[in-house]
Write a structure and sequence with these properties.
By secondary structure, the chain is mostly beta strands. Helices cover 6% and strands 53% of the residues. The chain has a 5-stranded antiparallel beta sheet with strand order 1-2-9-4-7, with helices on one face. The radius of gyration is 14 Å and the shape is globular. The two termini are 25 Å apart.
């Protein structure tokens, strides 16, 4: 539901699942919303899928909506589970691997 001042992106995980199903062997990206100063994307990862090392020109917030992922950054590996949130500065290389079916909400700031 969208009004002049607000937008419901998803009321829960079931709606996110309907909006962006898993695709075997690859990351399934979907636009959630673009707003003033930010873009939010919904990434669905099937088990074992790796988003190979990359970087973004803007700051990122990664929020794990469901599942478990390994985030590799700065020579370290971090396990993030449902509810986990991680900030990444601009231009910092990182890699994400799904340990199980996972859904990430990625916010690009700026």
């Amino acid at each position: 539901m969208t009004t002049e001042h607000s937008t419901l992106i998803a009321a829960g995980i079931d709606e996110l699942t309907e909006q962006n199903p898993f695709r075997e062997g690859r990351v399934s990206p979907a636009k959630a919303i673009d707003g003033p100063g930010f873009k939010m994307r919904h990434l669905a990862f099937a088990t074992g899928v790796v988003m190979k090392e990359h970087s973004a020109p803007v700051p990122l917030l990664i929020h794990v909506a469901a599942g478990r992922v390994l985030l590799r950054i700065d020579g370290a590996e971090h396990t993030l589970t449902s509810g986990g949130v991680y900030y990444i500065a601009p231009k910092v290389p990182h890699e994400v691997e799904a340990s199980e079916p996972s859904r990430l909400l990625l916010t690009l700031i700026g």
